[in-house]
Amino acid sequence: MVISAAKGDRVGSGKNGADAHGRGTPAAVAGPPAGKVPASPTAAPGTAAPGTAGPTAGGPTAGGPAAAGPAAAAGPAAGAAPAADGARRRPPTAVVVALMLNMALVALDSTIVSTAVPQIVGDLGGFSVFTWLFSGYLLAVTVTLPVYGSLSDTLGRKPVLLFGTALFLLGSVLCASAWNMAALIAFRIVQGLGGGALQSTVQTLAADLYPLRDRPRIQARMTTVWASSSLIGPALGGVLAACAGWRWTFLINVPLAGLALWLTARHLVEPVRSPGRRGPVDWAGALGVFACGGLLLFALVQGGVAWPWLSAPSLGLLGASAALAAVVVRIERRAARPILPGWVWRRRTIAAVNLALGALGLLMVAPMVFVPTYAQSVLGLGPVGAGFVTALMTLSWPLSAALCQHVYRRIGFRDTAVLGMSLAAVVLFAFTLLPYPARPWQPALVMLLLGAALGLFQLPLIVGVQSTVGWAERGTTTASVLFCRTVGQSVGAALLGAVANATVAARLADSPAAGSPERLDDVSRALAEPGSLAPAASDHLRSAVAAAVDHIFLGATAAAVAALLVLLLVAPRRFPVLPEQE
Hints:
Blueprint: H1 70-73, H2 93-114, H3 117-124, H4 132-155, H5 157-176, H6 181-209, H7 215-243, H8 248-251, H9 253-267, H10 283-302, H11 312-334, H12 343-346, H13 348-363, H14 365-377, H15 383-403, H16 405-411, H17 413-431, H18 441-466, H19 471-509, H20 523-528, H21 535-569
Helix pairs in contact: 2-6, 2-7, 2-9, 4-5, 4-6, 4-10, 4-19, 5-6, 5-9, 6-19, 7-15, 10-11, 13-18, 13-19, 13-21, 14-15, 14-21, 15-18, 16-17, 17-18, 17-21, 19-21
């Protein structure tokens, strides 16, 4: 059946369907909207990962044409595939496994490699540049997201997913064969070029292959993949590095990616589309987006670390990225199917979700980057204890995401997200009120509550916004959300890192204790060897770190408030959900 979306926030349920408040809604006698391509009875399942759906990440996307009106009453638009007759069949289990494997590859990547860094540096050298093992990968993923999103709308999801998995597999094999740090960094960038396709396409397939009422369940499964990977990755990486050698942290991807490739190629079947929907690929725009995004993120990653923010390198990179942005805008205005179309920002729903999830990426830097340091340096916990404090957020997040559909079916997508982010803002601010020194259970409770709040915030936006866009625009809108979230993470790491450095530097300058570190470069060494400082100096340094993390969480609270304002002032109260074939 087809569910009417005239009032927005419709959620198919049961025979008659239900609106956001759970009331039954009559079926509309409408054909599929323009660009909508319902899954065929043989289509395989897609799954959407929350991207930072779990703690890192994020999730599927925004999108959306206006609410169905006269256009909905029309027959199928040109280029739209004909709707499947009868109810949509459940996608094959093999494709669910393939998509979960692809998502696990991305989710495991950073955590499994991070624990092998000491062995990598000991074997290859390059301690001064090893951070580019992660920064280079992040850059490649981020700048390719819009490109893969547009390509999947033009060429289809399956070829893009197969290409991304194969490229990630190739990058993993090359990383395992690296002979020095420069080669390893270059091969990590190759991995990132494949990882961008995996993140974008897997999440887009969720809305393609699952009806609206089934998306919360598959979203929760994918969130669980991220949470499990966050817990398993560090331990697995440590075991492989210690027992088999660091190269196996990359070779472990080979059987997983190979199985994912085989299952995808064999079982994923996309609906046949009219050739009229295909258009020329905007290769000039893709190159421009790649160059502009690469320069911008390079400036954000290196600024304040490799050189001061107001130095010639920072200003030059930022200026060059601004100039390239102007060139990209000019190219995209002339392109038949632009990589970054203007409608992504002209539609209120997409723009609001982009901005809100960008703020989510920024605030996530506080719990994911700074809480482990706080737990070890201030609370005196070991690496396992610090990891447990952080992991509590990854445990409550998928549980909250799985249950939030019972909330948004009653009050709507936007209001559920507002509720979740309101709770997150309170929890983030509560962290700054913890006593010094706090008891370990106190920050652990904060992380548990924060995960529950963010699960309530992110998934309604993902499910709601994916439901406002047709097949031909879903890849682009998914990629736009992932791109904004990842840029938010990069901006957050730069801004909040600068806040932390400024706070610690100010406290050290006013230190009354003799023997305190005088430079920021000496802080990490002092934290790693607390016995090297006098008790008074050590306590003052711990207090400085605690103050810095408090300021970080104040910044994260401000980002949460910004997300709330975006939802309240920009997002429509009811998302203009498109009718869909059930």
